[in-house]
Structures are given as structure tokens and as C-alpha cells.
Amino acid sequence: MGESQKIYVVDDDKNICEIVSLYLEKEGFEVEQIYDGQTALRKIQEKPPKLVILDIMLPGIDGIALCKEVRKFSKVPIIMLTAKGDTLDKVLGLEIGADDYIVKPFDGKELVARVKAVLRRYEGESEDKSVSYPDLYVSLSEYKVIYKGKNIDLTPKELELLYFLCTHPNRVFTRDQLLENVWGYDYMGDSRTVDVHIKRLREKVGEGPNWKLTTVWGVGYKFEVN
């Protein structure tokens, strides 16, 4: 595999790095272990990997700060790894652009399955994907949203959620369905992150001449087009 096929495992616990590496190498992945955030940031900039597994608690730059920095220049898939099971950490990790979230201790098969699922979603997005409505253009391919002629700054998950709803106009989705389709895994029944993302989307893109993001009380959300 070339350099771009590597998975970076970023954790100051060398035992965790070794365990994750063993699971992934057994599946044919090439893995590089990194033990601090500053080194990880430099390596991601210099030689972008295929995917990053990133611990939240790191010396120097922590995982949350590192994820935010990486999202300023790259949409490389990121899976957060943490010893905490706190829901607030989980929500925060996904809001700042992580693609998935695994709590230690984890099962090796689950880790590998999550990695493969994130990579499938990421590779599936390489084809041209865009949708237009009056006053709104959303492109997953370019990671761009234009609202009333202006580029709108969205986080990766805000953009992916908006794109998903826009490509299924007038269809109502429950929070769990949105988590499954946009985040791509079971979110343990906590759906607050969907509400947060919808709220932010409404603040950033408002509504158009014949469309708006609508709450269907007791059910979920839809992109309503008249």
C-alpha cells in the first residue's frame, strides 16, 4: 500500500496503539502509530492518511482540538477513541467533524467493522454529488454550500445532514434514521446531536422561496418543498 493507504493511530498509550494496530494489520491495513497531537497534525498535513483513529486525551494538542485543526484543511475520515462514555463528549466529538466514536474498552471486531464502514462511506462520496433548489446549492463532492449567492461555512456533518435531507425532499426521517444514514452507526439511543445540527442548519441557511427544514413533532425532521 502507498502512503495514502495508511491508517494513523494517535494515542499516548502505546499499548492501545499496539492493540489497534494488530487488529487492523490482521485485516490488511498498513498502520502508523503516533503518540502526541503535534506530531499527528504535522504528519496529517505532510502525508494525508486513509483514516485517523484519534484518542481524545492526548498530551499537547488534545483530540478535540486536533480534530478541529484537521477539519480546517482536510476531510480525512476520523474515528474518535476515548476511555470516557460520557454522552456530552460523544456529542462534542461528532459536532466538531469526527466520523465515528468508539469507547474503550472496545471489541476488536467492532473496531474493524467501524473502520470499514467509515471508509465505505468516504469512498462512496468521491463521485459527483450535488443538489440545487432556489437560493440553495449543496455539493458533497466539493464540500460546499451556497445560500442566496454566498458560500456558507458548515461543519462536515452539518453539510452531510443537509445534503441527505435535500436529496429526500418531503420525506420524514426519525432522529435514529438520520443518525444511521448520516453518521452511519447506532448512536446508543441518544439523538441530541441531530437536534443540535438541525438548529445550526436553520441558523445558517434559513429557508428558501419554496423549501425549509421542518420539524414533524413526535416523529423527526424533513426537508419540505412546496
Structural description of this entry:
This protein has 226 residues and is an alpha/beta fold. The chain folds into 2 domains: 6-123, Response regulator (Rossmann fold); 130-225, Arc Repressor Mutant, subunit A. The protein contains 8 helices and 12 strands. It has helices at 14-26, 37-46, 63-71, 87-95, 108-124, 156-166, 175-183, 192-205; strands at 6-10, 30-34, 51-55, 78-82, 100-103, 130-133, 136-139, 144-147, 150-151, 173-174, 211-216, 220-225. The strands form 3 sheets. A 5-stranded parallel β-sheet has the order 2-1-3-4-5, sandwiched between helices. Strands 6-7-8-9 form a 4-stranded antiparallel β-sheet, with helices on one face. The radius of gyration is 18 Å and the shape is elongated. The model has no long low-confidence stretch (mean pLDDT 86).
Strand order of the largest sheet: 2-1-3-4-5
Helix content: 40-55%
Outline type? elongated
**CATH superfamily of the largest domain, called what?**
Response regulator
Distance between the termini: 50 Å
Structural domains: how many? 2
Q: What gyration radius follows from the Cα positions, in whole Å?
A: 18 Å
Rounded mean pLDDT is: 86
Q: Which CATH class of the largest domain applies here?
A: Alpha Beta
What is the number of helical segments per DSSP (H or I, 4+ residues)? Answer: 8
Task: Give the SSE string.
Answer: EHEHEHEHEHEEEEHEHHEE
What is the name of the CATH architecture of the largest domain? 3-Layer(aba) Sandwich
Strands, total number: 12
- Name the structural class: alpha/beta
- Strand content range: 15-25%
What fold name goes in the CATH topology slot of the largest domain? Rossmann fold
Largest sheet: 5 strands, parallel
Low-confidence stretches: none
